[in-house]
Design brief:
The structure is a homodimer. By secondary structure, chain A is an alpha+beta fold. Chain A has helices at 8-17, 24-31, 35-47, 66-85; strands at residues 22-23, 51-56, 59-64. The longest helix of chain A has 20 residues, at 66-85. Chain A starts with 7 loop residues before the first helix and ends in an 8-residue tail after the last helix. The interface between A and B is large, with 43 and 42 residues. Chain A binds a DNA duplex through residues 7, 9, 23-25, 33-43, 55, 57-60, 93.
Chain lengths: 93, 93
DNA sequence: ATTTGATATCAGCACGAGATGATGTAATCA
DNA sequence: TGATTACATCATCTCGTGCTGATATCAAAT
């Protein structure tokens, strides 16, 4: 799921959504990317549970799911913790 | 830098290194990937400061840098925190 | 000194992911 | 109803990135 955070445009979308829910047109305007492109990325983020879509009339608001980001963060923190704990246990060749 | 954690093979390398420092041959053996491939990935991880190389004779031990992972984790946690704080401030269309 | 083994580097290729244009759908407004 | 707006989906193309084979380097072993 961290894989999704790698793409620059997706990272920008997530950063924008961190400032509060926004609809597709906002993201298109702010990023300068074409609308189908944004929609494609939003679909991936939605499928991964990183964002949720909230239809409001003909607008679709997208909202970040903090828990998903925290799960990813926890994964990285755990790797760091394990690395520290086993830092003095190199494998033998 | 999170970009580097996206690739599956690099993620596997990092997971292996979280169990303690290991040399290239270990990673080649454990992942089943070809040696030049592993070396290429290690180079990228090294350039990004995610791992450090420690030459021991003709072996090269690689060690995870926990601080780098924690920095990435902190970035994600911060995004989650901001998203929570501004969750009820949707932009107007 | 020669060989062997571990690793790094380089050039070329192949494949997949992102970008785009065209089109479809649904909701609002005239 | 027809027109317009916001968004989603589809087909296609391009281009970057990872993978590989060949080769170079350097250290230990013989």
């Amino acid at each position: 799921m961290i894989r999704l955070l790698a793409d620059p445009l997706r990272a920008q979308i997530i950063a924008l959504l961190a400032d509060g829910p926004a609809c597709t047109c906002h993201l298109v305007e702010d990023t300068g990317a074409k609308q189908p492109n944004i929609s494609n990325h939003l679909r991936l983020l939605r499928d991964a549970g990183l964002v949720v879509a909230e239809p409001h009339g003909r607008f679709t608001y997208y909202r970040l799911v903090p828990e998903a980001l925290e799960t990813a963060a926890g994964h990285l923190t755990d790797l760091a913790r394990r690395a520290r704990a086993r830092s003095d246990a190199p494998r033998k060749c």
